[in-house]
From TrEMBL, chain A:
Residues 11-47 form the F-box domain. Gene3D superfamilies: 1.20.1280.50, Ribonuclease Inhibitor (3.80.10.10). CDD domains: F-box_AtFBL13-like (cd22160). Signal peptide: none annotated. It comes from the Eukaryota. This is F-box domain-containing protein. The lineage of its organism: Eukaryota, Viridiplantae, Streptophyta, Embryophyta, Tracheophyta. InterPro entries: F-box-like_dom_sf (IPR036047), F-box_AtFBL13-like (IPR053781), F-box_dom (IPR001810), LRR_dom_sf (IPR032675), LRR_FXL15/At3g58940/PEG3-like (IPR055411).
From TrEMBL, chain B:
This is SKP1-like protein. InterPro entries: SKP1, SKP1-like, SKP1-like_dim_sf, SKP1/BTB/POZ_sf, Skp1_comp_dimer, Skp1_comp_POZ. Residues 108-152 form the SKP1 component dimerisation domain. One of its GO terms (biological process) is SCF-dependent proteasomal ubiquitin-dependent protein catabolic process. Residues 11-65 form the SKP1 component POZ domain. Pathway: Protein modification; protein ubiquitination. The lineage of its organism: Eukaryota, Viridiplantae, Streptophyta, Embryophyta, Tracheophyta. Signal peptide: none annotated. Involved in ubiquitination and subsequent proteasomal degradation of target proteins. Together with CUL1, RBX1 and a F-box protein, it forms a SCF E3 ubiquitin ligase complex. The functional specificity of this complex depends on the type of F-box protein. In the SCF complex, it serves as an adapter that links the F-box protein to CUL1. Part of a SCF (SKP1-cullin-F-box) protein ligase complex. GO terms for cellular component: cytoplasm; nucleus. The keyword Zinc does not apply. Keywords: Ubl conjugation pathway.
Amino acid sequence: MAKKLRAANSIDKISELPTDILHKILYYLSHKEAVRTSLLSKAWRYIWCTLPNLDFSDTSAFTNKQHFVSIVNSNLQRYFDQRTCLQELHLSISLNHSDRGLVSLLKRWIPLLKNMGTKKFCLSIRSARHIRACVELPSVVFGAESLHYLHVQRFVLGQKAIQGLVIFKHLKSLHLQQVCIDEDIFHKIILSCPSIETMRVDRCMRLRKIKGNDLRNLKDFFFSRFQNVAFKEGLCRIEIHPPSIEKINITCGDLWLQRGANFLNLKDLCLRLVRSSLDHLSSCKFPCLRSLKIWECEGLKESHIFIDAPKIVYFEYGGDFVPHISIIATSSRVWDSYLNLRFSKVTSLWYFKLNKLLKLLSHSNICVEINQYSMKYRDMIVQENINLGQDDNCDKPVVVERLSLRCHVSLFSSLLEGTFRICRPRNIGDYHYRGDIKRIECLWKILMKRESGREDRKFSEVRMEIYERNKDLWHPTTLSQLPNYQPGEYTVTRFAIK
Amino acid sequence: MAAETGTPTTLTLKSNDDELFSVAESAAILSVTIRNMVEDGCAGGVIPLDNVDGKTLASVITYMNGISAIPADEEKKKSYRDKFLSDKDFETLADMVLAANYLNMSCLMDAVSAKIAQVMEKKSVGWVRRKFGIENDYTPEEEAAVKEEHKWTFEGVETDDDN
């Protein structure tokens, strides 16, 4: 009680905190910042010395590499000599060809970390050389038992690099970036990581196959590749559906789905440039899926896909053909879908397919963006007299929340003519009120004609609106008022249609 | 216990300045210290918390109620914590970190520690001394020696600004 009273009377509350609480506070500071606190007062002089963690993840704090090596070295030596437990070590290093110092630092300390009580070792190691220089990763890295997080960039991972491979009981996150690795080496590594939760395989070379179904704790999987590498080396075949998986993001790989697979915990699925057939998506179950994004996936071209995703919140599709995708969602839920369609030729069949797709998605709030395939708008064809076939009932065009045309204005009129036959947009936009002024003027003319004209489905009201960023509000405006707005505060315009 | 009877159980907590607070058991057991008492059957009457004053306890209880009302969504919990701590001055934060330590509430402990660290980050030594009321008891010679010893840490960004 006496101590409590004293604490209440003095102003300096922080210095009275017990050392272990001060350690918790300094835990959140980099090594450099933590050392600086020694100058505060005598009570603070040695607080940083016994911190259970060392954070050397910001290399910019050091004057040069030699300085970095000597500071890291002397600190680790101190923990070692004084037998202070070093629970956590964060190290971020960039290796040059001549960096003997850094390599010997790793060789010296990595084998000692376990004895120093390190439970969480986070290492980011980059080669400063281009990947073609084929720098082998020092083999000591894959002997670091206390690794919790490992990021390797621009190294070759060959047999030599994993000769001392141990089981990484604590490794939660593995990030291989621009690494050259064969599939047998890759699988040896992931088999040594039973606790892995996050795996990123980013623009790696030579890897042809990833089999991750046995990773019982994997939650987050990311794969990407450059398109040209994929062309040269062939696509990487990816099988990834452990029951724990929550997030899958694949760019330029082949996703292999097991028929009838149940993705029990999957919340996010994003597929880009996946060329394998996605037919099996229809037989899979996605009881937790919230977000589905599919871009440029040729595998969808000839398929009819039904996705069983009762909890879907957001669906996104982008590509140069109109797919046939339906999502089986719980009817009472509100969800959004966004379509980004690129065209080079708009025909009756194109409208017919779009009409089908919109109907399949009509339980969601739909946004449609229509883009031209290339800059050469003269090559684009938009058919004028379209025939949607007799079976199809176009009397009730699907309500679309927002329609956006991103093509040359000369195509607007015929494209809108056809589009209005299959959908009824609530808004057309958003166009920047200065940069897109030609499109705005063109739309204004077309829509005004439709408001006053005698078309089948004429609009009862068309209103132009401008968006005020700070207030998150749309205000009614007119074409002639546009030049008066302040840039920055006002951004885009749209046409609201009734 | 609550789950068996179906009615929410309320606990009574007593601060070291004899203020009484009632709080739902489901929220209070965020504190491992309190949870252990409940599990040991020692939570029947008034639970005395000798190391926490009334003002701090009121704040901690606000936090307990707020955070336990948020379903298992780490992002929402984080934004609640950020908002909860945003208007607290340093003295309150110091009291809270002590209370969180005593009550064994790791999520609050981590959030408050991070918040205090965030205040100190990239600030000059003089600024931190003034802000936290730390008295500089080094002699000028001693101070110069410590500064010389860790010279490299005083290079680069530091500011005296209050924000």
